Amino acid sequence: MKKAFITGITGQDGYYLTEFLLKNDYQVHGTIRRSSSFNTSRIENLISKHSSDERLKLYYSDLLDSSSLNNLINKILPDEIYNLAAQSHVAVSFKNPSYTIQSGNLGTVSLLEALRNSEKLIKYYQASSSEMFGGGSKVLLNEDSPLDPKSPYAASKVFSHHMTKLYRDSYNLFCVNGILFNHESPHRGETFVTRKITRAVGRIHLGIQSKLTLGNLDASRDWGFAGDYVEGMYKMLQHDTPDDWVLATGETYTVRQFAEAAFKMIDLNWEEYIETSSKYFRPNEVEHLLGDSSKARKFLNWEPKHSFDDLVKKMVESDIKLAKKEQVLIKENLLLPTWENPVF
User: Fold this and answer.
1) pLDDT, tens only, 53-111
2) Which of 80, 131, 184, 231 is catalytic?
3) pLDDT tens-digit profile of 324-334?
4) For this structure, is 19 an active site residue?
5) Residue 128 falls in the annotated catalytic set
6) Phi-psi region for residue 207, left (φ > 0), alpha (ψ -120 to 50) or beta?
7) Ordered domains of the chain (ranges, CATH)
8) Rounded Cα–Cα distance for residues 269 and 197 (Å)
9) Residue 103 annotated in active site
10) Selected catalytic residue, list 110, 129, 130, 160
């Protein structure tokens, strides 16, 4: 049985990747940060399902603690490492650049050093990001496109991206960079714009929210379904040689179009419910990101299985169900209706 080690296992991608690997007969080891409360809600069903067979194991660790990461890798000796952990919210990275950069960069170097010093050949996946490209022009972006980061988060990703290539070339390690364009799901964090929209749609549909405030409606992104993208991560590590890979749908939609599609699912005009505020604009806006994944489609036999409309439908349906649960709690005075105009 193969073993995989995942940082960021409690995030959106961590959930879908863990689910995928367990279905493919892996034993999965993941790190969670020690805090005053458990943050395992996304993977709770997976924990319960595999509580008896020991195929899913969690450990307290932190990307800033190189010693604990090294000790864990030496103890587990995984076949594959997926480094998904990061402070991944772009807006937050402007407010807290030091932590964003430290956690992303130190963690990457610690993991790469552990690989370099290990007697076992361990394959390594680094979560790069389309944000590295900067989105300054409306062009198709591939593995050879120039990097022009527009945020502390993106700059941190560029560093880790280059370090992964450096260790691959210098020490002949099996290290890959997965340059994933925006990928969403019902498990997306609620501070991300797509989930803000679908959460609002569910609540507005049931009358427990009236308005939603967003920032730049003209920002354009290549949006796919996260479940499709984790299969691409896996395929990168099964390829004969390590390389850099773009995963994307090849289609782009604006925030406005996402909102329009989401509200259309409940037969409402989005313009009647959405307001904009400069408060939610980035200091350095990324206007347009469109990916060219032809390399992955040709050599990895990867392609997205879900369309843009499939993605929106999946997210809205899930958040309507969630809003119905909230509505019950509100009626029973167990939850206060605080989403008249949520601020994230």
Assistant:
1) 889 999 988 878 888 899 999 999 999 999 998 776 777 788 888 888 888 898 999 99
2) 131
3) 999 988 887 76
4) no
5) no
6) left
7) 3-184+223-247 (3.40.50.720)
8) 13
9) no
10) 129
For residue 229 the two structure tokens come to 């993208």
In single-letter form, the type of residue at position 339 comes to: W
Catalytic residue among 82, 124, 153, 167: 153
